[in-house]
Amino acid sequence: MANLLEVKGLTTRVSGFTILNNLDFSIEENELRVLLGPNGAGKTTLICMITGQFKPVSGSIHFAGRDITGWAPDDIFQAGISRKFQVPNLYETLSVFDNVMVSLKGRRRVFSTLFQRLGAAERDRIWDILEFVELAEKASEPADTLSHGERQWLELGMLIASSPKLLLLDEPTTGMTEDGKRKTAELIRRIAKTHTVLLVEHDMHIVRQIGQRITVLHQGQTLVDGPMNEVMNNETVRRVYLGKGKF
Amino acid sequence: MPELVVGDHKATETPALRSAGRAERRRYRAPPFVPLWALIGIAAAVALIGTYPYYGSNAYVLSLLGKFLCFAIFALSIDLIWGFAGILSLGQAVYFGIGAYFVALSLKINYALTHPTRYGGKFPDFMEWNGLTELPHFMTPLISTPFAVFCALSVPTLLGLLFGVITFKRHIYGVYCAVITLAESLILQEIIIEYQAYTGGFNGITDYSNFAGPGFLWFILAVVVVFLLIARALTHSRVGTVLKSIRDNDVRAEFMGYNVANYRIFVFCVSAFMAAAAGALYAAWVGIVSFLDAGPVFSIEGVIWTAVGGRGTLIGPFIGTFLVKGAEFFLSGALASWWQIIVGGLFIFVVLVLRDGIVGSIGNWIRKRKRGTTLHQLIEESDQKAHDRQLEWRPGGPPPTDEPVR
User: Which residues of A touch B393 (CB under 8 A)?
Assistant: First the structure.
């Protein structure tokens, strides 16, 4: 199957430090990929590069057959990549309902939103999504009254609302209780049934619960890439994670 | 009615019950377009101000009412960008001033045609004092008042567009944007003083026939109502929700595919248009325009009125303007030298204590009363509920997609 996302020879430097070093990386359609790696391995940087927050020094990023290297974040979103931030990023004073509404897939230009009305189909879809992330009863509440877990789930709902071809989830379980983590993992597993997902995760329990294929990054390069059991039993990975290895 | 579990449906529910429950759950309390209290309040205020010429006899109060209404439109234009898009402009008077000067110039030129100067010139007297012998050619189109009004409204809007393109497109906002707008209004003030042959300089433009009568007061009131409706329609619509989302979190909005700069430019232009209209009405009403009406002090005063009334409320700027300017009318006689200090202190008080202004604070208080809880309690309660739900949570189906499930 054709690769949905294809990263080739990606290099980036931030104030003299090479964060990503000639990185090759690809995701197939309908895949759920987990990105692992110790702190500073370049996981978040890779996501920032894909979504256009940082510009690469060299290398290319192709998405769905198009070269999106150097595009602006809003154009990359239009191409079909939605991103979840590590810290929940909501519209605090808007209601939960409106948070999902502004995230719905649709026209984004000023003059097309000026006279746009919320159709019945869109309304139903918002409720479907709110029920999926179990926030329907809070629809009218402003987002800043939600608990930490609910905020993470609302952002997941907003991402689904945007009907992306590729979902980038940057540590969605950060700061959650064990129960919350389990539920988030289950949500992600269900999302992955219908979406292509790239998940950055530290928590090995979560990775075990949902992981299929894993890519381990280390010092800006791919260390190992393979199915979960293989990666989990890999000597090098164990050494990198335990901090004994010198690379 | 059986207890409904959100998410997973209990197997014992009948389909009819389930759909009834679903409709019950899917009820979103959207705020009304014009709440009843606002409708009654605005109607009462319009009636009270509009009929003043028939029950009041004080010509000074009448002139103040028209003036305050123009100032309030000006404050509304600030609320639109500051309250709904998070753009703090300290130079909004630029657009007010340009609108006012176009109308004042036109009225002055027309006045001079029928009232020759001391030396017989049929052009504005301040031009004669500054050595001009006839009306400059580039100003002759302003003899037509409709054209002058068109310029008064379109030039500031286009200037707002230009300003928006050069700042927002370059991702300049927040404090830097505020500083640039401040500089903008300083520059305009300097230009007006420097080119006094064309602008009247320090003395401003005065001595022309203005329209300070009941008829024009009603016209200003009509503009106020129309602008309020436009502002409400704008902020209540989809584009308003997007603007508020950009105000709350511009990074998230950008990664949700919104071109943040274009939205900011759009609302800035609308705001510049309203400020220009306020300036045009002001010049026609009071009959004197000076460089102060385009300066930074007036801009900041507008920001203070908005803050006192409550930003992001649309009605707040009107209440703030009438309260602050009204207090100035009553108190500045007794406390003339202290007045500026009092206004400054008021602003500090509002920022420190009454962050949402008068209208916003009343709204918060009512919301608290309705819920019977504070925000803090609400979050705690929400945490507890979320915890309870996690315990009873069971996996369900895949997420809703707008494409067929693969």
Answer: 134, 179, 183, 186
For residue range A200-213, list pLDDT tens digits in order: 887 777 888 777 78
Q: Which residue has the tokens 């208080």?
A: B365
- Is B244's CB within 8 Å of A94's CB? yes
Q: Which phi and psi angles does A105 have, rounded to 5°?
A: -65, 140
Q: What is the pTM of this model?
A: 0.86
Can you tell me the mean pLDDT for B386-399? 58
Residues 16-75 of B with CB under 8 A from A: 25-26, 28-29
d(CA A130, CA A146): 13
Contacts of A115 in chain B (CB under 8 A): 237
- B399: nearest CB among A93, A110, A194: A194
pLDDT-wise least confident of A31-35, B72-76, B215-219, B221-225: A31-35
DSSP assignment of B198-251 equals HH-GGG-EE-S----SHHHHHHHHHHHHHHHHHHHHHHHSHHHHHHHHHHH-HH
Return d(Cα B19, Cα A125) in angstroms, integer. 16
CA distance B37 to chain A (A): 21
* pLDDT tens-place string over residues A37-47: 877 788 888 88
Domain regions of chain B by residue span: 57-295
Per-residue pLDDT of chain A (247 residues; tens, 9 = 90+): 578 888 888 888 877 788 888 888 888 888 888 888 877 788 888 888 898 888 888 888 999 888 988 888 888 998 999 988 888 889 988 999 999 999 988 878 888 888 888 888 888 889 999 988 888 888 888 888 888 888 999 999 999 999 899 999 988 888 888 888 888 888 888 888 888 999 988 777 788 877 778 888 888 888 888 888 888 788 887 777 755 444 3
Residues of chain A positioned with their CB less than 8 A from the CB of B237: 113-116
Rounded to 10 degrees, what is the CA torsion of B124, B125, B127, B132? 100
The mean pLDDT of B59-82, rounded to a whole number, is 95
Closest CA to A97 of A61, A146, A64, A49: A146
Beta bridge partner(s), residue A26: A6
Whether A230 contacts chain B with CB within 8 A = no
Q: Are strands A3-14 and A17-28 parallel, antiparallel or unpaired?
A: antiparallel
CA A20 – CA A11 distance, rounded (Å): 5
Residues from chain A that touch B249, judged by Cβ atoms under 8 A, are 89-92
Backbone φ and ψ of B105, nearest 5°:
-60, -45
A positions 37-96 inside 8 Å of B (CB) = 51, 73-74, 77-78, 82-83, 85, 89-95
CA nearest to B381 within chain A: A147
**What does the block give as tokens for B128?**
């004669």
CB pairs < 8 Å spanning A and B: 164
Q: Which residue of A has its CA nearest to B401?
A: A163
CA-wise closest residue to A125 among B401, B406, B239, B24: B401
Q: How far apart are CA A17 and CA B74, in angstroms?
A: 50
Closest Cβ–Cβ partner in B247, B256, B396 for A77: B256
How far is it, in rounded angstroms, from Cα A173 to Cα A151?
Answer: 11
